[in-house]
Every structure is written in structure tokens, then in C-alpha cells.
Amino acid sequence: MSSRAEQKLRTRRALMDAALAQLSADRGFGSLSLREVAREAGIAPTSFYRHFAELDELGLALVDEGGVALRQLMRQARKRIARDGSAISTSVETFMEYLGNNANLFRLMLRERTGVSKPFRTAIKAEIDHFVTELVDDLKRFADEQNKPLSDARLVAEAMVTLVFNQGAEALDATPREREDLKTKLKTELRMILVGAQALAKK
């Protein structure tokens, strides 16, 4: 890769980091301006367009990055599950690690999931669907390995992902003690969904 291409990638990264740095519990992506993002990244506003056609394109790149990062972490969690067992506990711990390292990325996905921008809603739905599909495969595999069939793996996966997202929203601004309590609660709720689906499959 040429030095010019490397510099372009670094500047693109700086713009994405600059946008993320300005998000908070009180400020969403829609309130950001191109000018302030460019200033935070240390470039002229006109140079922004060499990297993104508009601010929303930058936001969509962040959504994609957030989804990919979460799926990669959960794939790593599968290896830990294979080694240590306890699928639900390991998955919850992994998700909370993701929140700790990617709080503003998750804020972006939470807010824009139901926001006014259709491209954002579509992109986030696609990321969630990817996550659900991978979870369906995991649930079916675990069900076969344990000889405990589920009534509907897709519905179970959708319920679990919805629950995790909702609890993740609470965990974002929780104290360490509150986050530990949320983890315990989430593990219990996920087990209840799983046991319920196993019981329904027997009917």
C-alpha cells in the first residue's frame, strides 16, 4: 500500500474516531456537524468529502464497524464456550466486554435503530439480522449436542437479541455494581427463555 493510501486510511479513521468521541448519553449522531467532526479530526471541512460523501455515510460506516466488531467478539466467545462451557454466562460476559470497549458505537446503534433515518434503520436491522442468524446456528448446534430440541430456534434467537440490546442500553451508564447486577439478571432471563423453548418443544 502506498504512503498516500495509508494516509487516506488514517484520516478516514480519524474522522470516524472524531465522530464517536462526540457521542454521549446526552448527544446523538444527528446533532453532529460535518465542520466539528472535521475540526476534531484535525482536517479542513472541505477535505471531509475525500473520505465520505456526507456525514450519514460516516455514520453508516460506524454502524458496519460496530456490527462486525460484535460478531467477531461473539465468535471468539464460541471458542471460550467450547473450552470452558457455560454458553450463556460466557456470551453475556463477552457482550459486556464489548459494551465497555465500544460504548459510543453501541449508543449509535441503539439510537439510530429507531431513528428518523431509513438508511440507518435498514443498516442496523441488517446487522441485527446477521447476529440473529449466527445465534440460530449456535442454538441449533447446542440443542443437537445436548439432545434438548427447541420449539423455534429463530424466535428464541430474536427474543434473546432483543433482551440483550435492551439490557445493554441500561448497562451503558450503569455503575460497576449496577452492571454486575444487570449481568446476573440477564443471564437468568436468557436461561428462562432457553428453558421455556425447550419445554415447549416437548409438547
TrEMBL record:
The keyword DNA-binding applies. Gene3D superfamilies: Homeodomain-like, Tetracycline Repressor, domain 2. This is Unsaturated fatty acid biosynthesis repressor FabR, TetR family. InterPro entries: DesT_TetR_C, Homeodomain-like_sf, HTH_TetR, HTH_transcr_repressor_FabR. Residues 33-52 bind DNA. The lineage of its organism: Bacteria, Pseudomonadati, Pseudomonadota, Gammaproteobacteria, Pseudomonadales. GO terms for molecular function: DNA binding. Keywords: DNA-binding, Transcription, Transcription regulation. It comes from Marinobacter nitratireducens. It holds the Pfam family TetR_N. Residues 10-70 form the HTH tetR-type domain. The keyword Cell cycle does not apply.
